[in-house]
Amino acid sequence: MKHRGRGVACGWYGIARTAAMDRAAVWVELDDGGTVKIATGVTEIGEGVLTGLAQIAAEEMGVRPEDIVLGDNDTARVPEAAHAGATRMTYMIGNAVAVGCREAFGKFRAAMGEYWGVAPESIKAFAGEVWVEGSSTKRMTMAHAVHVLKKERGVVIVGSGLFTSKHTALDAETGEATPWQSYVFGAQIAEVEVDDDTGEVQVLGVWAAHDVGRVVNPQQVEGQIEGGVVMALGHALMEDYIQVEGRTATPGFAKYILPTALDVPKVTSVLITEPDPKTPLGVKGIGEPAITPTAAAIINAIHDAVGVRMTRLPATPERIMAALREKRAARPPLRKVA
Fold this sequence. Notes:
The structure is a single chain. This protein has helices spanning 49-61, 89-116, 142-152, 218-237, 294-306, 317-329, and strands at residues 2-17, 23-30, 36-39, 68-70, 123-126, 129-132, 139-141, 157-164, 180-195, 201-211, 243-244, 247-248, 266-272. By secondary structure, it is α+β, with helices and mostly antiparallel strands. The chain has 2 domains: 2-14 and 180-329, Aldehyde Oxidoreductase, domain 4, CATH 3.30.365.10; 17-164, 2-Layer Sandwich (Aldehyde Oxidoreductase, domain 4), CATH 3.30.365.10. A hairpin with a 2-residue loop joins strand 11 (243-244) and strand 12 (247-248). The model has no long low-confidence stretch (mean pLDDT 92).
């Protein structure tokens, strides 16, 4: 017989270490054609960070995302961005890009204000167009503006950005400190169907609500959540890395079971957009945090469905059946009625 159950779990994840200061830096140049060069040691590992950085730079500089050129990431030639991981990419490098672009755009506004004879604050830019607020005649493309500044006035617009976490030393007496600058919080609900004849578990749906700060790209954030849920589903129910006397007994993926498309449930993502107050952009992150609550929610749902508490992962059919047999054996015998 199949039984349905639901489970809930919560999690939190720290971003930007403060014991050993985290940092990232970029160079920015407003180049010919109205393009913007961003030079930083960022490494794209499939999470879409380059798209996010291009969006941030485009908004700050008043150009289109396709006008952003993310340059050579060789750290022998460009500023250090540090490692690609720990849910830090958008938080650290995104903020560094914002800082660098704001410096560059401030110089651009000052130069264009002088050219047009207006206050720098009146210079506006969006999607590659530059204009003076309130004027119907003072308007041109960003490409033309760059040409005017470089060719006619000899002005090259550059900027640099550095973003660091706030270092907190250990308390001399207690050893306490603030380990992370920001935290991502999340809660997930899983609904499962458990067959008590076979021990098989089917995850029917996952509802995932995460505090992600200001959202740069909603589609990418939802994709990260969905990918994290699928990874954690494998961790909860299938993936079993076995060692015997320190040596692997699962040498290949043929015997290391991974989720397939048939195992993926419907994932409903809810984005809680509470900007982080300690950063220029207000962004956070969602790489590892999306994985954190999933397995616990699934295990709680199994308990809700069939009343057994799994304490070892993965919760394979064999282990679930063993737990069910133990539960049945522990039932008190039926009393005979005279």
